[in-house]
Amino acid sequence: MGREGASPGSVVTLRNGGLDTISWKSKLAWVDFLGSLMLISAIFTLVFGIETGSNVSWKSPKTILCLAIAPILFGLFALIESKAAVEPFAPARVVLNRKLWPSLFGNFFCFAGWLSVTFTVPLYVQAADNLKVTHVGPILIPGAIGGVVGSIFAGYVMKKTGRYFGLTLVSDMALSLGVGAIILCTLWVRGRVWVSWVALVTEAL
Fold first, then answer.
1. pLDDT above 90: percentage of residues in the chain
2. What is the pTM of this model?
3. Best label site of 16, 114, 182, 201, fewest CB within 10 Å?
4. Within 13 A of 89's CA, how many CA atoms are on the CB side?
């Protein structure tokens, strides 16, 4: 639940049942800033290259440069996570564990579905109902709240039980229901903002 996830800087380390008493500077040193920067750069160059290629030209120097740099940056990210990072947010022992692959791939594709809905629903409502951008933005607020609530609830349950498989199934079902409602009720959504709110909250949980 909660597709948005947590940034490396928002993680608080817990040991021996409580918060560590070491200084915040020492905790800050654990944050994987270099890995985060490398991952953001790799994703940006890949997306920018694809966007430029589809809208401008696949032979454009910008497109070729970005698509050539992206694999290198992804490789550097993997190297940093496996060799340099003190507390990597994508540890090799987790990413390469085949038992976790179904959950990782499921989360990946569900996040892709959530992101596409979050991007397209405001555009549709803006065009269908002739609304301004300032009026469309609040439509995303319930979905964001649903994502936060889902993340906190899932984290609490996993901390208490140590299980995540059932949470993954429930989360995937909620996403499917929310996205399915948006797809099947596209015409009905027009003029009924509350329908979008309910669907976005459901698919964000």
1. 13
2. 0.56
3. 16
4. 20
